[in-house]
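2 proteins. here.
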Amino acid sequence: MPVRRIPRNGRWFFRTIVVKPDGTRERISGTPGQPGAYHDLSQSKVGAQEAERRAIMQAMSGDVLRPASRGAAPTLEDSSVTFLDNYAASHKPSTQLAKRQILRRHLVPHLGHLPIDQIRQVHVDKLVADLLRGGLSRKTINNITSVLSALLRYAVKNKVIESCDLTFNIKAQSVEVVAVPAESVTRLVEACTDPRYRAAFLLAADAGLRVGEIRALRWPDVNMIGREITVSRSLDRNNALTETKGYDTRVIPISDRLWAALRQLDDSRRHVLYSRSGDAPLRYDGVRERILDAYKAAKVTPPPRPWHSLRHTFCTELARAGVPVNVIKELAGHKSIETTLRYMHTDRAAKRGAIDALAHEASERDSASTSRR
């Protein structure tokens, strides 16, 4: 059958052979709902059949194929296929999956039936209101509406719609950075009996690596003589190898205790932190379980994000030591300086000290006032 659907992504297209009156054969194909000759048709079976009909007529008449004039805009559901297949194709697998899930769970059920040129501010506001009533956090809702914004902006760039001047984000509280205290990191390391996980804790707390970067680290990335680590790749939870979060390679000096911990590992393996069953990297689920065991053994209360909070420790300790913000940004691999600035004022001990000093000053003033009476 010339009109068919790709099982992997559900995209409709046509492919067939036309026999012209002079006996020559021409292979024709196309996809509706994408930039090109059939952008005005819906990404559906009916749209593919209409695109095939047009292509056959054009091939039989000998006319040059030209993009059809813009007709009715595709629905958001139809546009989501083009968006995922093209715009999101260069993103990391985990990012593609997140966008796919947001579209399937939230955007398509709420707005999928609407032509994208008919989406108005009231539709966005109602989506937000429904999601708030559903108990989703404001940060999560902003993640959802950012996908909607990207889809509509992509449609503008492809001249499917004229413009998009809607407001998508809502105000949300910034999440306070929770760092594991330095003394608790020491207790975690001392309580851990597995040398692989001792090194893993220090790769996060003393070098600032994300858990995916820790799992992807290989021995060629570690210069034990020059005492530097090159971070250029990451493993997502499905073991897909990708670039780092910021797509930049960074080089981090190795601290004394991290260097000592790395020396305890088997450097004949491919990965620095290897699985017991072979040379594969540590499993994501296994890493999560083991760190909770370590917190329990060390009698340290685990923060909401047990691994990432160790990375927060790295940045917070650098800020406390007075390291310039641009240096912290480079070592942490932050894309934006605003992200790094969060660590310049997250020391809870410093905040407590400031309040205690204020209370002490007030107490001294009260004492002086009493003695004068």
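next one coming up
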Amino acid sequence: MAGIDKEIDALGPEVDPSVILVELDGLAGKLADAERLREQTQTALYEAQREDAAAKARLDQALSSIPVELRQREALERNLADTRLRYAKRLRAIEIAKRTKDETANAALAAKHDFMAAIDAHQNAISRRETARALLQQRLVERNLSEADYQSFKRFIPSIETDKVAIDAFKRSLNLAHDGFAAALKAVEGLARPDLTMLTAAFTDAQHLATTALEQRVKTENYLENLETLRRTIEQEQKCLEALELKSEPLRELAGLCTGGNTSKLELETFAIAAMFDRVLDAANRRLRPMTKDRYRLQRDEGGSGKSFRGLGISVFDMETGKARLSSTLSGGETFIAALALALGLSDVVESVSGKVHLDTIFIDEGFGSLDTDDEAGTLEQVLQVLTQLVSPSRAIGIISHVKAVQERIPNGFYVHKDVAGSRIEARGVI
């Protein structure tokens, strides 16, 4: 029946048949009017086609005396455009030829002027050469030199000034040497001749020591120069490093924040996971409070010491003591409740983050035997009430348990019996 009702609903709202008949009559009248209009339009079309054929015949007769290539407007326009283009090219060619002619005439006139100037310069050079040759012959006669002597001494002319300076320097050195020789003769006058062999050996040793010292000095200077070069290189690199450090300081600071170099000692990945974990814990606490009568609250353990990063541990805040304690100190039943609350909280967060993910079915295997079943206000009763509230038309919860109180609270289910033939399933309640 439900399927038939859906099909009826799909047909739309109910309509009065008399209203439909009236609308059909109106549509029939409109259809007849449209048919008459179509026939009139068809007649007008035939008339227009006859007039078009007659006009084409008159056009063909008028164009019969015109060449075929000139009958089309497009061909005429292309021919005219080509003619204008050739005309424009020829005008440009004429302008270029005129400019080339003028430039060539100017170049020829300038070349003629240069040619005449070159002839004048050549004549002047010949005249100066003859004058210089006559002056040279006169000076050779005055110096009593022949042409051959002049040619032999000619190669020394460029270094005359340098030779004069060298001769003057040699004269001064020679005078100093004569003065030194005279002073040495005066200084040794009346003295005995020293032992030249011993002095020569001492001089050789001293010369060897001087050579060694000079070599050591050269090595030291080279080493010092290398050190100076290294120092300058280090200073330059230091400046580059300082500039790079100054430029990369924001990036390094951001990298430090992302890798745990912050006051919270949290890496970016750990921070993101911790933020999502806090949402899971908040959702889990909403499930945990009614199951523990508002005694316990789960919280993320943010403890850490030294250089270690904060972790993602869980601690339990006890409302009765007002202190947080380790989750390992919970009893078996309390641990089961906390795990169940975390699972439900995680499903709530997943569904809220991604609307496409729904936790349609939840299966819980055992764990109820560790809960308090003393009375209706016990822990088991609180847990079952929370699970009952989760049941909806779009969500089912399956529980596997041997606890009698749990079996009594669940209206629908199965019993599993074991015998020698194997396991046997017995349905109970309404399935």
